[in-house]
Backbone:
């Protein structure tokens, strides 16, 4: 199964993530689970920077699916540049897309992935309409 990042998307956040020795697997490259941790770090840092506060107990974002395509191995040491994109806002959801590149090799994508992000009412345990402020950011 192959997933391609769409051409029509909006860059919403960028950050550097240090590659830690403990993120490596027995084969000497970044453990597959670490890619998803990096993606999550990007989404959460972006949302915190954007929203200014953590989500409330009542409403916030949830991920309902996630994927990663491993293009090339990532090895210790160094930093990866994470770029986070958004697209396709709907009533209560939008798509997030992520690319990882070595800091010293911009444009050379080592991994790409994404997730469907849903605005949720936690008490009702169901989706809720995207807030206007968030819709403006992801549109």
Residues:
């Amino acid at each position: 199964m192959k997933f391609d990042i769409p051409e029509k998307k909006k860059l919403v956040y960028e950050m550097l993530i240090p590659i830690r020795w403990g993120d490596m697997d027995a084969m000497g490259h970044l453990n597959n689970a670490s890619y998803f941790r990096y993606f999550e770090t990007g989404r959460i840092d972006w949302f915190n920077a954007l929203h200014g506060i953590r989500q409330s107990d009542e409403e916030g974002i949830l991920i309902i699916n996630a994927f990663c395509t491993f293009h090339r191995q990532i090895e210790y040491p160094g930093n990866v540049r994470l770029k986070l994109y958004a697209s396709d806002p709907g009533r209560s959801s939008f798509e997030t897309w992520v690319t990882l590149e070595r800091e010293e090799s911009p444009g050379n994508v080592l991994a790409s992935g994404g997730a469907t992000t849903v605005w949720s009412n936690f008490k009702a345990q169901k989706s809720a309409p995207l807030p206007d402020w968030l819709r403006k950011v992801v549109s």
About this structure: The domain at 10-138 is CATH 3.10.129.10 (Thiol Ester Dehydrase; Chain A). The CA atoms of residues 89 and 136 lie 10 Å apart.
